[in-house]
Design goal:
Blueprint lengths: L12 E2 L4 E2 L4 H11 L3 E6 L2 E7 H8 L16 E2 L3 E2 L5 H11 L3 E6 L2 E7 H12 L3
Parallel strand pairs: 2-3, 6-7
Antiparallel strand pairs: 1-8, 3-4, 4-5, 7-8
Length: 133
């Protein structure tokens, strides 16, 4: 059960899939569908450039003349994503995400992405808090 000292490492989704900025939106969709995910860190040479969500993809694809087979992930991604170390306290992460209305955070050790924390992970933590033993 989460406590005041619970870290993001305990609730993050580990080993996330990622995508390159020059990949096409159609490729991102296929990855998300295949793996049942809604967020992909965008990397270049192992460096975090951004984050693309299913919502970002849908938003860009509603624009006129956008072909998902031609438009790149870079054009849909959120730049400067919220990145935290795995030692971040869950309570601090949740407060920051709520305050800024972030839907997710990339969890990284140095420049290496080790996880993603989403609102679904936050709901798992909340459910654990509400379980009475």
């Amino acid at each position: 059960m989460p406590s005041q000292t619970t870290t993001v490492r305990e609730y993050m989704t580990p080993h996330p899939h990622s995508i390159g900025r020059d990949q096409k939106l159609a490729t991102a969709h296929e990855m998300m569908r295949r793996h049942g995910i809604r967020h992909l860190p965008v990397l270049e040479g192992g460096r975090i450039l951004g984050l693309v969500s299913l919502r970002d993809l849908h938003l860009v694809e509603t624009l006129p003349d956008v072909d998902p087979a031609k438009v790149t992930v870079e054009e849909a991604m959120a730049q400067d994503p919220y990145v935290v170390p795995p030692s971040t306290l869950l309570v601090d992460l949740a407060r920051t995400m709520a305050e800024h209305k972030y839907g997710s955070a990339i969890v990284a050790e140095g420049a290496h992405v080790i996880g993603v924390f989403t609102t679904v992970d936050a709901l798992r933590a909340l459910a654990d808090c509400l379980v009475r033993t």
